[in-house]
Amino acid sequence: MMARSGAALPPLLLLLVVVGACFARPAAAAQSHLSALGRTLVVEASPKAGQVLYAGEDTITVTWRLNASAPAGADAGYKVVKVTLCYAPASQEDRGWRKANDDLSKDKACKFEIAQPQPYAYAAAGPGTRTLRYRVARDVPSASYHVRAYALDASGAPVGYGQTAPAYYFRVAGDTGVHASLRVAAAVLSALSVAALAFFAVVEKRRKDE
Amino acid sequence: MAEGELKPAAMQVEAAEAASKPRFRMPVDSDNKATEFWLFSFARPHMSAFHLSWFSFFCCFLSTFAAPPLLPLIRDTLGLTATDIGSAGIASVSGAVFVRVAMGTACDLVGPRLASASIILITTPAVYCSAIIDSPSSFLLVRFFTGFSLASFVSTQFWMSSMFSPPKVGLANGVAGGWGNLGGGAVQLIMPLVFEAIRKIGSTPFTAWRVAFFIPGLLQTLSAIAVLAFGQDMPDGNYRKLHKSGDMHKDSFGNVFRHAVTNYRAWILSLTYGYCFGVELAVDNIIAQYFYDRFGVKLSTAGFIAASFGMANIISRPGGGLMSDWLSSQFGMRGRLWGLWVVQTIGGVLCVVLGAVDYSFGASVAVMILFSLFVQAACGLTFGIVPFVSRRSLGLISGMTGGGGNVGAVLTQLIFFHGSKYKTETGIKYMGLMIIACTLPITLINFPQWGGMFVGPQPGATAEDYYNREWTTHESEKGFNTASVRFAENSVREGGRSGSQSKHTVPVESSPADV
């Protein structure tokens, strides 16, 4: 049987390599690094430090404007702003799947995009002041977060950013997913399993005694 | 086959003597064990026992490894750290270490049917409760208790060794064990698909994974009930009936225990099994997350890849068992030992390669498949040898070996895949090196009547002597050792083609009634 499976191996391996190539991720288009971007935006978010927000219920209001100390005309190329929810360092600890990376294509810390990228508008209140209201989505897990906003140019590449960290972090209490019906189902089925065993044990004993 | 041709004559003699003797659809040896293996048959009691045992064991694997493919979701729901995940992975395989040994004893004393159904039904509540956990510690606890069900492996091997004759025992054990282990692979495919289906129905992600756990739970409950309703311990009947009628001597735990722990071969096989089966369990626990995080593939893709690791069991473990039986037909027990050492060592080498090719997705998948074939075949080869180590303490030794498998899984995960100390690909490389090192003790196993890897058989040593050693003269006089004597006769082929060392010149085909 091993010989037969040995003969099938080369074509099987070839198939796997081809399948693997199809599933492999394409190389990242832009190699932008966070350290290369200027921190040209000032971002503020409504939650206070340490406040707990409930997923699916509470909202975050985010405002951003050009940093006063940024050189004039720095925002000339800014077309849209992408706002993301990022994990705080405390929530990244011992969790390699949330690790921050300077190379933005490999960064895993800022996974949740708050709405669609917003136009970086020049409003009367001041250059590039905008607000955004966001209801925390139900699939945002329980953790500590801060808000980061990237300014994107016309081609979609990041050219500037701002974030609320390290000033303060807030918590989200995520959906636990447990419902009463689940509890009932678990209890009933567990009891049934044990009862089935007891039933057969009694039947066996009766047969033995006969 | 020659055995089958002579059987009718012998059976007619026996049938005339004892009209109450059961008649079987399959050809059997003097012990009423089947001498053939009909995979697609449900013939009672041999093949029905096979199908009941592999399927119930499959369901236990489904439950024990239901969490790993869903970890990317569970870790967010419960806020797990890498340490929490590693600890739960270790817990999932550590519970079974002692329960497997206990199962071995239970099989020796009350029979595989009751022993396996009991452990399976008692652990299903843990599976159902996995749906309602809400903290890292409760996650660890449910994985710990669910893992107990893997002890049903021992009853699978014991049951097959009771139902199938030595020339087929490697194959029967290999297919039953392999198709059961398949659950560890299939579940990596099933759970993400079930999760997606439930989510499409309208559930939130964090509820959907919880509902998905009811599938393995229900399957486990139903399969155990089937074992109780339709299974039978031995070809001649269930233990309770055989004990009552006096056909089978009810052994004592003390004797069974003593003869198991004093047999050094049992300890060596426990260690080496930890580095084929134990490694398989460890990989089941980490591989989906590894592909998801290292290569950024989708959850269902990572599940598919992880599944192909476990699904190789469909052919690899039975292939190992078949190879063991074939090697035995050519070279006897020495062939079985060499086969095990070579295949398991190659598995270790491939494991090192898997850790080294982490730069390429395609190469990683390909090497992983090859690695799975070899490491699982080694499991099949191991249980081609275990039935011969002892006849009196077969259950406990199967349990020790099985338990050793879990110890290997615990150690491997503890050393290499716990917390953030090693990157996963580095851990895999070192695991491969450990496999190669811990496979070397196989060179030390020696059966006086059949030899070892580097040692030939002792002249004058016989299988009868080896198995009768486990019984005192007093017990032998009372006939308690009849099963061992029959087993020794049927093991004549383990001496290899150059001829058996048996004191009896009676070939395996005829029964004692002819002499």
Automatic annotation (TrEMBL), chain A:
GO BP annotations listed: nitrate assimilation; response to nitrate
Molecular function (Gene Ontology), one example: nitrate transmembrane transporter activity
GO terms under cellular component: plasma membrane
Keyword Aminoacyl-tRNA synthetase: no
Source domain of life: Eukaryota
Keywords: Cell membrane, Membrane, Nitrate assimilation, Signal, Transmembrane, Transmembrane helix
Family: Belongs to the NAR2 family.
Functional summary from the UniProt entry: Involved in nitrate transport.
Record's protein name: High-affinity nitrate transporter
TrEMBL record, chain B:
A family per Pfam: MFS_1
Subcellular compartments: Endomembrane system
Gene Ontology terms: biological process: nitrate assimilation
UniProt-annotated stretches for the region Disordered: 491-515
Alphabetical UniProt keywords: Membrane, Nitrate assimilation, Transmembrane, Transmembrane helix
InterPro entries recorded: MFS (IPR011701), MFS_dom (IPR020846), MFS_trans_sf (IPR036259), NO3_transporter (IPR044772)
Keyword Transmembrane: yes
Residue intervals of the Major facilitator superfamily (MFS) profile domain: 49-449
GO molecular function: nitrate transmembrane transporter activity
Topology within the bilayer: Multi-pass membrane protein
Residue ranges crossing the lipid bilayer per the database entry: 52-71, 77-102, 114-133, 139-159, 171-191, 211-231, 266-283, 295-316, 337-357, 363-389, 396-416, 428-447
GO cellular component: endomembrane system; membrane
Stated family: Belongs to the major facilitator superfamily. Nitrate/nitrite porter (TC 2.A.1.8) family.
Protein name in UniProt: Major facilitator superfamily (MFS) profile domain-containing protein
Taxonomy of the source species: Eukaryota, Viridiplantae, Streptophyta, Embryophyta, Tracheophyta
